[in-house]
Amino acid sequence: MDTGTDISMITVPAGRVTLSDRRTQRSWTVEPAPYRLAAHAVTQAQYARVTGERPSTAQGDRLPVEGVSWLDAVRFCNALSLREGLPPAYRPHSGTGDVEGAEAVGLDPASDGYRLPSEAEWEHACRAGTTGARYGQLDDIAWHRGNSRERPHEVGSRQPNAWGLYDTLGNVWEWCWDVYDAEVYGSYRVLRGGGWFDEHWSCRASVRRRSHPTFRIDDTGFRVARSVL
To answer: Has this prediction a pTM greater than 0.90?
Structure first.
């Protein structure tokens, strides 16, 4: 458990994952190095502790923060890094953790501060060594439209995967670092995991969604990662 933030981080081993996109029928293989990933999405209490803000539609300390943009998530990562005396992972930060437009944000590979996972890291962690659509029975591991009563639920209240990660499927979609398809969608960023309002077919390890980095949606949150240097 990380002192001062209550963000529990899981060390994820190196591995190999094949990503795919249904729209383009393209697939590609990535080999993530070891990294650390939060056991669950950032909660409203954690977000408020770092930013002083509570942007979510549904309210509750243990609920995942939602209604946050990709840029909000990036700013949170830098602010949390500074709070813990770590070098911010995103530039430009000007010593304050501030970032402007998504196009201006760069990732510092030499930083072990908090950041968003790449989508390859996200899928590798979600699968936790499995190869199917899900790492368990959907109702046991995820809050989705069929069991959520159309609202988010407290993090960690479903079964984790084999590596101790909760809610990688369902509850809220999670922002990733990656641009979705720059040629077609510009700066739109990748979302993963499915959410509380999604049908079962969206809550699969391989499903990709996209959104503009400034958009705030009530089924979208994020979890943090750190590089192992």
So the answer is: yes
> Residue 107 corresponds to which tokens in the numbers above?
């990732």
Three-state DSSP string of the chain: CCCCCCCCEEEECCCCEEEEECCCCEEEEECCCCEEEECCCCEHHHHHHHHCCCCCCCCCCCCECCCCCHHHHHHHHHHHHHHCCCCCCEECCCCCCCCCCHHHCEECCCCCCEECCCHHHHHHHHHCCCCCCCCCCHHHHCCCCCCCCCCCCCCCCCCCCCCCCCCCCCCCEEEEEEECCHHHHCCCEEEECCCCCCCHHHCCCCCEEEECCCCCCCCEECCCEEECC
Between the alpha carbon of residue 89 and those of residues 69, 111, 118, the distances in Å are: 18, 5, 13
Q: Which of 83, 95, 22, 89 is nearest to 224 (CA)?
A: 89
CA-based nearest residue to 124, from 204, 17, 36: 17
pLDDT, one tens digit per residue, over 89-124 is 998 644 444 555 666 789 999 999 999 999 999 999
Q: What angle do CA 132, 152, 57 make, to 5 degrees?
A: 140
What's the CA gap between 180 and 74, in Å, rounded? 16
d(CA 88, CA 1): 20
Please give the single-letter amino acid code of residue 2: D
pLDDT digits (tens, 9 = 90+) for 51-87: 999 999 999 999 999 999 999 999 999 999 999 999 9
Q: Which residues lie across from 221 on neighbouring strands?
A: 174
Euclidean distance between CA atoms 53 and 45, whole angstroms: 9
